[in-house]
Design goal:
The chain has four helices and six strands; from the N terminus they run E-H-E-E-H-E-H-E-E-H. Bound molecules: tetrahydrodeoxyuridine.
Length: 161
């Protein structure tokens, strides 16, 4: 038997280390988080993507009384960006979350498994990695690629085998 280990590289920084464009994305994602429709969880997530054409698209989580019918902020945002600009790659995705008082939560929140699957397929589709920034009040995690968040990705290649 062999033991294999995987290493995932990510950067940890503080809010005041964000660059101007990252700060702008954070402001837009925060504005989106305030507009989330999250009456059931009170967990308001905001996301913003910077596209290769310089456009910024934002979104938030949308819940529903029939729980599985809702959608996470990340998928709302990336699907919206791909719907609006199908041929333009996502350069950076930033995600943040607000507590019940409208303040940033201390810890960054990682995207759920289904969102990771969608983000990695977006990377395959655009043939380019996207930077992912997970923003909390105390720490920001930065990944060079969404695929770093999802080892052993299921891709369309498996369907061909
Ligand atoms: N949620 C997101 O929007 N993004 C995530 O990555 C995790 C969870 C939403 C879904 C639901 O509206 C609420 O947060 C609680 O799970």
């Amino acid at each position: 038997m062999e033991i294999n280990e995987l290493k995932i590289k990510y950067f940890v920084k503080s809010l005041n280390e964000l660059s101007d464009y990252e700060r702008n994305l954070l402001n837009i994602a925060t504005e989106a988080a305030h507009k989330a429709y999250a009456p059931y969880s009170n967990f308001r997530v905001g996301a913003a993507v910077l596209l290769e054409n310089g456009e910024i698209v934002s979104g938030n989580n949308q819940e529903n009384a029939a729980f599985p019918s809702g959608l996470c902020a990340e998928r709302v945002t990336v699907f919206y960006a791909n719907a609006k600009y199908p041929d333009v790659a996502v350069n950076t995705l930033l995600i943040t979350v607000l507590d019940e008082n409208g303040d940033y939560r201390s810890e960054p929140i990682p995207p759920c498994g289904a969102c990771r699957q969608v983000l990695t397929e977006t990377e395959s589709r655009q043939k380019k990695a996207m930077r992912v920034l997970l923003v909390g009040k105390d720490e920001v995690y930065e990944f060079d690629s969404a695929s770093d968040l999802l080892p052993f990705i299921f891709t369309s290649n498996e369907l061909k085998k």
